[in-house]
Amino acid sequence: MKKYLYILKSELMTSLQYTFDIISRLISYFILIIIFVSLWKYIYSDPSQSINGYNIIQTIWYVIVTELIWTTVGTRIVTTNISNDIKEGNIIYKINKPYDYIAYNIFSHIGRIFLKFFIFIIFAGVIGYLLVGSFPPLSIPMFIIFLISAILAVIVNTVLTIIIGLVSFYVEDSAPLYWVYTKLLLIFGTLFPVEFFPGILSTILKYSPIVALSYGPGRLFVNFSYDLAWKIILAQIIYIIVFYIIAKIIYKKGVKKLNVNGG
Predict the structure, then answer these.
(1) Distance (Å, rounded) from C-alpha 209 to C-alpha 236?
(2) How large is the angle between the packed helices 101-132 and 226-260, nearest 10 degrees?
């Protein structure tokens, strides 16, 4: 574990040098939130109106939280790095390294976005309060549980994009798959709570990874309940384990395929 914590720390220290990247993402995030808040204020013509159990304040905070996760997670670099390792043959040199390739990429990415994630949480809180005028009724223990769920959502997202990158063992370019994945995640659970979709689709989404990726943390922040919190966190842990196992299987078969074909 020490070597992975060292990897995390190294990436964290490196990220401190890219302050312009953080500032540019904060500006982009701010613009997106202003756009979506304006959209929802238009949809909620009556401030007292409720849509599928969400009032306008809850909906705005939901989008602020899910966009926070969406913006900070930045997993394109994960998919790109793995894809390049495979296509350029660099992965051959990493097979015998004294670390697990999947775990290396997970801890590396967490270190890369660690500082940015917490800066964005503070920034999002300030923006949300200025736009809405109040915070959801969360106690300190509730907020900590929400924070744990948000961090787990980042990890689930990271492992999923590692799987997408590893698909490069079998296809020439995994970028189109990543594009489809991000757009599905943006529509289902990030911009809109799953309750906003028609009955059967809403039910399917509640039992899909969307809950672990974006909807879960967003829902906890605007309408917290301990019963729901444990269910979401348990689902996130299960998805992390399942996706990690899938990533390992794809990786091992891909490496075997390279060895059989002579690298």
Answers:
(1) 8
(2) 140
